[in-house]
Design brief:
The chain is α+β, with helices and mostly antiparallel strands. The protein has six helices and 17 strands. The relative contact order is 0.19.
């Protein structure tokens, strides 16, 4: 019996944890008119609309070697391959005349750099590919050959340069080292998938449905715990289903704590209790959600609703921190 209570309390905790940060409360949703920009809103977002063009996508650097006739024969290259990423410390990789393609790639991959080496076969000859593991102009690969003649720096072997993503938000340019643009618009993440010629419309609007779903999960979990506790320990006029737990102090204290959490007042504004945003006890003693009341609260003051539930990140606690 107690194990079943523990299981139900775990579900209640999971439901409350889904609402204990401002980003999880997330009473906003983002939309995009083009799949080239996938927009998502967090708890710090605010309603708005933007015209955005994607001029460049962030990309990593890729360079190839000259052609190599055999994948298994020694290449006869002897010297040092010096590699570094951006302004980072260079790594000198010793290349021996007896090294094969696999030997050289193994040495590069073991150097601890944010660079990957792999091979490419065109049907006749092989090439070694050097690829940066991070996008952005600051992550360019610097290649110096001392004694070797792989040809990584040859213009014809440069397949792709490292570059930042570049977008225009209402004609103002923004650069990002990755294709996940954050911070440009407060609370909004822009995932870039393609360049565009025309502006993409990105909007941020209230998302009452998202928080309703999470609060309904909380309501269902709370009622399941409450019903179980009352059944096990009994209530006035109702015998306990387990005589050994009749009037059990621990079970009653759990119920009291849960009830107190739902009556906690956060702040002094209009929306400072769970009841003020639509969560209250019905005549049967079960928690119920008034969806219309919640929608009105979100429309009137979504910031206060967020603070009530999740508190302030790194600051004051919300109701969900006490459940």
């Amino acid at each position: 019996n107690l194990s079943s209570v523990s299981s139900l309390l775990s579900k209640l905790k999971a439901a409350s944890d889904a609402l204990d940060t401002s980003s999880e409360v997330g009473s906003y949703k983002a939309t995009s008119s083009n799949a080239a920009i996938v927009a998502s809103a967090g708890g710090l977002a605010a309603p708005g609309k933007y015209s955005i063009k994607v001029n460049k996508l962030a990309q990593e650097q890729r360079n190839y070697s000259n052609t190599i006739s055999s994948a298994t024969a020694p290449m006869g290259q002897a010297g040092t391959l010096r590699l570094s990423v951006g302004s980072g410390t260079a790594s000198d990789i010793a290349i021996n005349a007896t090294d094969t393609i696999d030997d050289v790639m193994g040495k590069i991959n073991a150097a601890g750099l944010r660079v990957s080496a792999s091979s490419f076969f065109d049907g006749k000859d092989y090439r070694i590919q050097l690829r940066g593991l991070d996008t952005g102009a600051a992550n360019n690969i610097n290649i110096t050959e001392l004694g070797t003649t792989f040809g990584f720096n040859d213009v014809d072997n440069a397949a792709q340069t490292a570059q930042d993503a570049e977008i225009e938000i209402d004609k103002f340019k923004v650069k990002s080292a990755t294709n996940q643009v954050t911070g440009a618009i407060r609370g909004l993440t822009l995932a870039l998938t393609a360049t565009t010629t025309d502006a993409v419309t990105v909007g941020v609007d209230n998302d009452a449905d998202g928080i309703k779903t999470k609060l309904q999960a909380l309501v269902d979990s709370y009622n399941a715990v409450s019903t179980k506790l009352k059944g096990l320990s009994g209530t006035v006029g109702v015998a306990a289903t387990d005589p050994n737990l009749a009037g059990d102090f621990t079970l009653r204290s759990i119920g009291t704590r849960l009830n107190a959490a739902l009556h906690t007042q956060i702040g002094s504004g209009t929306y400072n209790t769970m009841a003020s945003i639509g969560l209250s006890m019905d005549k049967t003693g079960k928690l119920a959600l008034d969806a219309d009341k919640l929608t009105k609260a979100l429309a009137a003051d979504s910031s206060s609703v967020s603070k009530l539930l999740a508190g302030t990140d790194g600051g004051a606690l919300g109701v969900m921190d006490t459940v």
